[in-house]
């Protein structure tokens, strides 16, 4: 059984309304451009496809997309948007669930690999991606860079949003690489706040690169966002692309991976 926390029905029903900014054309446009360019004429597989925020519009662009999703409630919301024949979804965890066929692209967006709370499971996620990729195919992850340098001595919390409708902050367990994301969200017009929290395992880019090498994948590119901004030591997140070798025993070593 995966260590991922399961989205319940209530959380799944609220998800799209709470993520309207992430579903905007300004956010999704560059994401879809990036992913569609890598998929080319091939098929794409989204790990943790959720309610289809990315998969549905990517399919509308003509990319055949399939998904793996741990929460039946999230998948049920997606199914209201598109039928199974158009966008097939398999229920299961992204570290071990296998779907038929080969893909030119496997992708995992919006920090979702951090839902796997152990290093072993994250390694298995990379292996599962490699298992599904055709030779020359790519695995893409979007993940935040742990903001640990913002922590002065003895402090364990970092705020990431303070607004009229939402207060969010992360607390860190530096020994086990676990962060807990805390949310106070204003519901309705009565001024009440709903409290929620979720656990995540954070990982540095270099750690992910080692996971990729264990799975037989090579780093091809790393940028700071979906528009291709160069990745630097000040970047808050990264989009990383690893490639499966074209043939057994052949490794791909690009001359430059940060641009």
TrEMBL record:
Every copy of the Methyltransferase domain together lies at 45-137
**Where are the residues of the annotated region Disordered?**
1-22
Question: Is Flavoprotein found in the keyword set?
Answer: no
A GO BP entry is: methylation
Matching InterPro entries = Methyltransf_25, SAM-dependent_MTases_sf
Instruction: Provide ranges: composition bias, Basic and acidic residues.
Output: 1-17
Can you tell which superkingdom this protein's organism belongs to? Answer: Bacteria
What's a Gene Ontology MF term here? methyltransferase activity
SUPFAM superfamilies reported in the protein's UniProt record? S-adenosyl-L-methionine-dependent methyltransferases
Query: What does the UniProt keyword field contain?
Result: Methyltransferase, Transferase
Q: Which Pfam families match?
A: Methyltransf_25
Q: What is this protein called?
A: Class I SAM-dependent methyltransferase
């Amino acid at each position: 059984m995966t260590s991922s926390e399961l989205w319940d029905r209530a959380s799944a029903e609220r998800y799209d309304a709470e993520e309207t900014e992430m579903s905007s054309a300004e956010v999704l446009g560059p994401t879809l451009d990036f992913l569609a360019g890598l998929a080319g004429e091939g098929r794409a597989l989204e790990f943790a496809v959720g309610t289809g925020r990315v998969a549905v519009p990517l399919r509308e662009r003509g990319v055949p997309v399939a998904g793996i999703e741990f929460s039946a409630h999230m998948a049920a919301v997606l199914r209201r948007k598109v039928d199974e024949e158009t966008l097939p979804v398999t229920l299961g965890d992204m570290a071990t669930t296998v779907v038929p066929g080969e893909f030119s692209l496997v992708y995992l967006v919006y920090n979702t690999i951090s839902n796997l709370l152990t290093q072993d499971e994250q390694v298995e996620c990379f292996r599962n991606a490699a298992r599904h990729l055709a030779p020359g195919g790519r695995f893409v992850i979007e993940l935040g860079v742990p903001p640990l340098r913002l922590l002065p001595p003895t402090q364990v919390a970092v705020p990431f949003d303070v607004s009229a409708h939402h207060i969010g902050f992360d607390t860190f367990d530096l020994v086990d690489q676990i962060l807990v994301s805390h949310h106070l969200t204003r519901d309705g017009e009565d001024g009440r706040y709903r409290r929620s929290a979720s656990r995540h395992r954070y990982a540095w880019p270099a750690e992910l690169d080692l996971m990729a090498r264990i799975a037989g994948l090579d780093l091809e590119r790393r940028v700071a966002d979906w528009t291709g901004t160069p990745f630097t030591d000040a970047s808050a997140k990264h989009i990383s692309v690893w490639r499966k070798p074209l043939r057994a025993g052949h490794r791909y070593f690009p001359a430059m991976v940060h641009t």
